[in-house]
Automatic annotation (TrEMBL), chain A:
Cofactor: thiamine diphosphate
Coiled coil: none
Organism whose genome encodes this protein: Sedimentibacter hydroxybenzoicus DSM 7310
Protein name according to UniProt: Alpha-ketoacid dehydrogenase subunit beta
Keywords: Oxidoreductase, Thiamine pyrophosphate
Species classification: Bacteria, Bacillati, Bacillota, Tissierellia, Sedimentibacter
TM helices/strands, residue ranges: none
Molecular function in Gene Ontology: oxidoreductase activity
Length: 322, 323
């Protein structure tokens, strides 16, 4: 299979969908001339002209106007520059975008996508490094996807654009340059469906986005001790795939969740609570969660390094379960 | 004497819309105070000339974004009165199936994109709808109704700038009712005329007497012409006064009854209209009476519809969340 980068995969998704549907528009900061600050929109302005718009530095207007445009028949894709800036437009996200369909009794849909580049890069520090997906697990009315590789990046973005619900698409900044196999031709990755990325029998590791790399590293380390880990790539955070998780836990009897976001109140907390409620009798060991310490992201490299997930430490923690 | 010649149909529309809103609001107030309407209710009494004067010039294909004080806009835009009343009562036959209530009333079938429980939440929605109009090369417009208080939100400034920079077909209609919730707007707002802020966004503006429906209608016509010619947005400020408290049940510790009564008696948009059309012999008392009777029948019907409708079944709680 051909290999392309995560960034190219998102570009293919955008171009394919925009060719099929004239109602799709794209707006955000630094898109038209710059091609997006990570180059993830390069080439789109040349092909789609006025449908790609440079916005003022006005996050509430970017999201709010996207919502309004969606109500009036367009299918906007809004780029948030950095996921961290979603905070600026939070009312538009959770009081408008997420609620309009429900509070108006289903009179309308809000078909739009927010693209939100997230995660640690190199010393981008407290306001440009966060993984904030867990906030949105607490907001009914929207969907959240978190691709971990180029193939999913394309398939999930195409699904997000086609979906009539509002979708937040978290794309990890480090993953943009990563290459991976991507099928030729049109395909979709369904929203709400996790993938068993590696089959195993002894422990279930649930992860998503860039933390999937850690999940594989941890599985390799465990294998050296004869522990065969099953890895589930969640792919969608809202709604998350309860069935696939339960099925796996019932087989392996152990569960760990790994994400780059802070551990406290994270996606792992929800999954741990869910499995504890529904399948505690299947568990042979306590559920383990791995995430960042409960601090803002620090700047200085040694501090930032201490903030990052560490595969050795995770593997050691998991070996103790056996 | 007015500059524009008003035909019978237009005059009847003005009176009909204003009376319908007034009587609707009075009815809602009564039933709210009787404990039959749940939640919060913000009344539009005293400001009827603005929604009526504006929406008379709009079609169902034009959009409006409204506010927490949204019944007037909804009715003036032509929403089904039965459904609006039922929604405010929380019934399943309401426009939003009882999921929204007074603060989240909407009727997409007539281009009414929703009231908004968040002050200043509508600016960007109206701007986005105008963007869709422009992208789809339609000839419609989008209108953002808002109060003086919300012009201090960041959303106001972001939306005005974006709309002007992109020359979007949106008209910002400020209902300056002089009260930001319970605070006199001049104590927290740096400018007397909100419309002066339009200058900072390179946008033309006009101030009209918001309690004079003729002035609102003519001012909005001017805005509409400007916007429809592709010039970009327009800012219309209608000076008015909020006759009722911020919400029904507001103890109104911040002003005197005399102040309110003085305006209600001397600057009431409906009585001003009646006096003018009668003295200018544009309409007869008989004509006005006929319209009032028609409105009474419709209000009564809407009320009965709401009272006789079922509440939603608890099982409907998950309906219409996702597509």
């Amino acid at each position: 299979m051909r290999e392309i980068t995560f960034s190219q995969a998102t570009l293919e998704a955008m171009a394919e969908e925009m060719r099929l549907d004239e109602d799709i528009i794209v707006m955000g900061e630094d898109i038209v001339r710059q091609g997006g600050i990570f180059g993830q929109f390069k080439g789109l302005p040349a092909e789609f002209g006025e449908r790609i718009m440079d916005t003022p530095i006005s996050e509430t207007a970017i999201i709010g106007a996207s919502v309004g445009a969606a109500l009036a028949g367009l299918r906007p894709v809004a780029d948030m520059h950095y996921a961290d800036f979603l905070g600026v437009a939070m009312d538009e996200v959770f009081n408008q975008m997420a609620k309009i369909r429900y509070m108006f009794g289903g009179q309308t849909t809000v078909p739009m996508v927010i693209r939100a580049p997230d995660g640690l890069s190199l010393s981008a520090a407290a306001q440009h490094s966060q993984s904030i997906e867990a906030w949105f697990m607490n907001i009914p009315g929207l969907m959240v996807v978190t691709p971990s590789n180029p193939a999913d990046a394309k398939g999930l973005l195409k699904s997000a654009i086609r979906d009539n619900n509002p979708v937040i698409y978290f794309e990890n900044k480090i993953l943009y340059k990563e290459k991976g196999p991507v099928p030729d031709g049109e395909y979709f990755v369904p929203i709400g469906k996790a993938k068993v990325a590696k089959e195993g029998s002894d422990i279930t590791i649930v992860s998503y986005s860039i933390a999937m790399k850690k999940a594989y590293e941890v599985a390799d380390l465990l294998a050296k001790d004869g522990i065969n880990a099953e890895i589930i790539d969640l792919r969608t955070i809202v709604p998350y795939d309860k069935e696939t998780i339960l099925e796996s836990v019932k087989k392996t009897h152990r569960l760990a969740i790994i994400h780059e976001a802070v551990k406290q109140g994270g996606v792992g907390s929800e999954i741990a609570a869910y499995v504890a409620e529904e399948a505690v009798e299947y568990l042979d060991a306590p559920i383990k969660r791995f995430g960042a310490p409960f601090t803002p992201v620090p700047f200085s490299p040694p501090l930032e390094n201490a903030y990052r997930l560490n595969s050795e430490k995770i593997a050691k923690g998991l070996k103790d379960l056996f | 004497m007015r500059m524009v010649k008003y035909n019978k149909e237009l005059l009847e529309t003005f009176y009909y819309k204003m009376m319908k809103i007034r009587r609707f609001e009075e009815t809602v107030e009564r039933y709210f105070l009787d404990g039959e309407i749940p939640g919060f209710v913000h009344l539009y009494i005293g400001e009827e000339a603005i929604a009526s004067g504006v929406c008379t010039s709009l079609t169902d294909e034009d959009y409006i974004a409204s506010t927490h004080r949204g019944h007037g806009h909804t009715i003036a835009k032509g929403a089904d009165l039965n459904q609006v009343m039922a929604e405010i009562f929380g019934k399943k036959t309401g426009s939003c199936k009882g999921k929204g209530g007074s603060m989240h009333i909407a009727d997409f079938s007539v281009g009414m994109l929703g009231a908004n429980g968040v002050v200043g939440g509508g600016f960007n929605l109206a701007t986005g709808a105008a963007l869709a109009i422009k992208v789809k090369k339609r000839t419609n417009v989008s209108v953002a109704f808002f109060g003086d208080g919300s012009s201090n939100r960041g959303t106001f400034h972001e939306a005005l700038n974006m709309a002007s920079a992109w020359k979007l077909p949106v008209i910002f209609v400020c209902e300056n009712n002089q009260w930001a919730s319970t605070t006199p707007y001049r104590t927290t707002t740096a400018v007397e005329d909100i419309s002066i802020r339009a200058q900072g966004y390179n946008m033309p503006s006009k101030i009209v007497d918001g309690n004079d429906i003729f002035a609102v209608y003519e001012g909005f016509k001017e805005a509409l012409e400007y916007v429809k010619a592709g010039n970009g947005p327009f800012f219309l400020e209608a000076k008015t006064y909020r006759i009722k408290g911020h919400f029904v049940g507001d103890p109104e510790m911040y002003r005197t009854k005399e102040e309110v009564n003085e305006i209600y008696v001397n600057n009431n948009p409906i009585t001003r209209f009646e006096e003018e059309v009668l003295s200018e012999k544009l309409m007869t008392e008989e004509q006005l009476k006929k319209i009032r009777e028609k409105v009474e029948i419709e209000i009564k019907e809407a009320l009965n519809f709401a009272l006789n409708s079922e509440y939603p079944d608890p099982s409907e709680i998950f309906d219409d969340l996702y597509v």
